[in-house]
Amino acid sequence: MIAPGSCIGIIGGGQLARMMILEGRKMGYRFIVVDPSEQCASAAIVDELIIDKWSSLNAALTLAKKCDVVTVDTEHVPWQSIQAMEEITHVFPSSMVLKNIQDRLAQRQFLQNQSIPQTAFYNVESLDDIHAAMDEMGLPCVLKTKTSGYDGKGQSVIRELEDALFAWEKIGRLPAIIEKFVDFQDEVSVIIARTKVACKVQVSIYPIAKNLHYKHILHKTVVPSGYDGRIEEKCKALAMQVVDAFDYIGVMGIEMFVTKDGEVLVNELAPRTHNSGHFTYGGCMTSQFEQHIRAVTGQALGATTLLSPIVMVNLLGDLWDDGIDFSKLVQTPHTTLHLYGKTPPQKGRKMGHFTVFDAEVEKASAIADDLYNEL
Ligand SMILES: Nc1ncnc2c1ncn2[C@@H]1O[C@H](COP(=O)(O)OP(=O)(O)O)[C@@H](O)[C@H]1O
Ligand SMILES: [Mg+2]
User: Fold this and answer.
1) Do residues 32 and 84 share a domain?
2) pTM tops 0.85, yes or no
């Protein structure tokens, strides 16, 4: 157990770190963050900021020496840095987890070894590989760089045979995977936490969330998802299988597709708190951020009970283009605005989010749409 009062290190000082710190401070922990920017989202609320790249081994070692446990707000921290820190302190996620997740091919192979349902995929190192895969799978397909992708970056959809070269160029001819495009009914996600308290495993799962993406970036999360118990249980069982396979400690966000014939396919694993879990911050008895702090410090997990139907909407930098006015939003009952304190508000950059509660989820959704359109 890492007692309250101890120091927690985080590599990456973005909004996920910021919300972990806000929740962790309330629990009595201190925080040191590594981030390249003095103006990162965590800067204003952290005990100490180490200005360096996430990939810096030096910074990782300095952090490990100062902290009782280290975690991350991005899965792109090199697993080699995590491995080096493991010699010094507790680190979650482990280097084994990151090694198997930060490379998309390794991630797909890991899921395949666990017989977890997912879309068909192939390794891509050349244009010939893309053509061979298209022959096997048919169209459309999605080309994704093996590493460093997020929010749809490093991805390209191939709809026609002639698009292959363009797609390959678009991702910079980098090592990639190609996947069969899933004609899904919905995207859903599972936020799951796993820890060990006195060597006994504890797992807790939030209600599954239905997610709407716009241009490959999460736009809106709706909970409850509207899916019946059968789909909900299927998603949760897959999530359990994933965290057990990794002997995972912490919160993991797992993105899934529900197909038109009621199959569930795993799309992507995020070994950290997840954007689609922001509804838990205010919407559940324990937020995903508090839950992660509990998990990595060896505390018992908190209750995941949903307090009310809730809708979460992301606020991207694009909205700031012509100035932004939150007056209607903050004057609407049962609505909560979260801003991450990021500057400047660039296109596609996640600046904040808001949540809307209502006894009827459809009503919460309609109010959220209205408020978003107003912005
Ligand atoms: N194989 C696929 N079939 C259909 N849509 C996909 C597929 N892969 C990705 N997408 C779409 O693109 C979004 C982002 O892709 P994802 O693989 O989750 O990468 P990241 O979130 O790291 O950018 C997904 O949420 C989904 O909307
Ligand atoms: Mg994703």
Assistant:
1) yes
2) yes
